Amino acid sequence: MDGNGRWAKQRHQPRIFGHKEGAESVRHVLKACAELGVKYLTVYAFSTENWGRPRAEVDFLMGLFSQLIDREVTELMKSGVKLQFLGRLHQFSPDLQDKIRTAMDKTKGNKRITLSVMVNYGGRAEIVDALNEIVESRKLKLEGRIEEKDVQAHLYTKDMPDPDLLIRTANEMRVSNFLLWQIAYAEIYVTETFWPDFRREQLIAAIEAYQKRERRFGKLS
Ligand code: IPE
Ligand code: MG
Prior knowledge:
Layout (H helix, E strand, L loop, with lengths): L3 H7 L4 H22 L3 E5 L10 H24 L2 E6 L7 H14 L5 E6 L4 H15 L10 H7 L10 E4 L18 E4 L9 H12 L10
Parallel strand pairs: 1-3, 2-3, 4-5
Helix pairs in contact: 1-2, 2-3, 3-4, 5-6
The protein binds 3-methylbut-3-enyl trihydrogen diphosphate and magnesium ion.
């Protein structure tokens, strides 16, 4: 979800103003996805590298996550949204971790759509965590080579299909450590739109572009 800062700057507002409006975009895009029958929406909210931002901005984002959980869980229950936070959660404050766990537990039975918020997430970190889990689980019994399916089964996203469409806002043409394993065959859509301006109409444009792609998964046709 890129471009919050630039969106705010355009309006001569502080960066956090953009993050706040960006949270509104998540709400709009989630609603539109649910209505369109999309089963999984995965958003990149905070990377393992984002700790390097100014303290005030990091604190604001942490506060925003916690506020959103407080305000939205009732609505998510009503609209059948399973909410999960994926990433190295243990580096968050105990308070936020508690909130996250409670919200995930409460919404885990919801079936309409899964909203995954990737926080303190890095694609490389996820693969390293998966490999460590595999090694840990194999300490007592040797089971031969590690296969692709073993890595898949230990990713944070183990219960989800690989994404079909990766949307990159604010015209950034790089992957920035997002879902490195899972996007092997994802269709990438880049738009100049800053994330706070990305709403239903922009989502539909992205899906329409996706529908015109020919997906071959490495085969001839
Ligand atoms: C939001 O956009 C990404 C988050 C980490 C929440 P940015 O904060 O990266 O916005 P730009 O790139 O400065 O415009
Ligand atoms: Mg950015």
